[in-house]
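thought: user wants a sequence for this fold. calling inverse folding tool.
action: design(structure=
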């Protein structure tokens, strides 16, 4: 397991309320939400960045997106949400354990990245 904050949450070393979990991933609310709904979909597998994912992670990556959609629907933002993956320091990534941001609950401006 990664020794990032997310690895510790997955390992149960740091308590964090989970919105959802299954054998492949967990979902938690972001500690510093940027939008009214801001969840993080985190694979249990400690892939540091998206660019570190391999061909054998194809099914896992698809699963994460389907869980993200399910979470958005369950939180009432299924008709309008944004998925974000920050890759690497230059991409704004701060926790080096792959995660998808699921963001919504307010009108997201067209053509903007955040
Ligand atoms: P990144 O910048 O790596 O794409 O996103 C990391 C996200 O993790 C940030 O939005 C940050 O607020 C969130 N985060 C960092 N530490 C914690 C934590 O301990 N608990 C939760 N729930 N979120 C965290």
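)
observation: tool returned 114 residues.
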């Amino acid at each position: 397991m990664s020794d990032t904050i997310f690895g510790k949450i997955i390992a149960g070393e740091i308590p964090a309320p989970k919105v959802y979990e299954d054998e492949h991933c967990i979902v938690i609310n972001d500690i510093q939400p940027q939008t009214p709904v801001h969840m993080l979909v985190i694979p249990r597998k400690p892939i540091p960045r998206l660019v570190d994912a391999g061909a054998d992670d194809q099914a896992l990556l698809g699963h994460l997106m389907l869980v993200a959609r399910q979470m958005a629907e369950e939180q009432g933002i299924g008709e309008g949400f944004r998925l974000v993956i920050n890759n690497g320091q230059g991409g704004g990534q701060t926790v080096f354990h792959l995660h998808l941001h699921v963001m919504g609950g307010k009108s997201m401006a067209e053509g903007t990245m955040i």
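thought: summarizing for user.
answer: Here is the designed sequence. The domain at 5-104 is CATH 3.30.428.10 (HIT family, subunit A).
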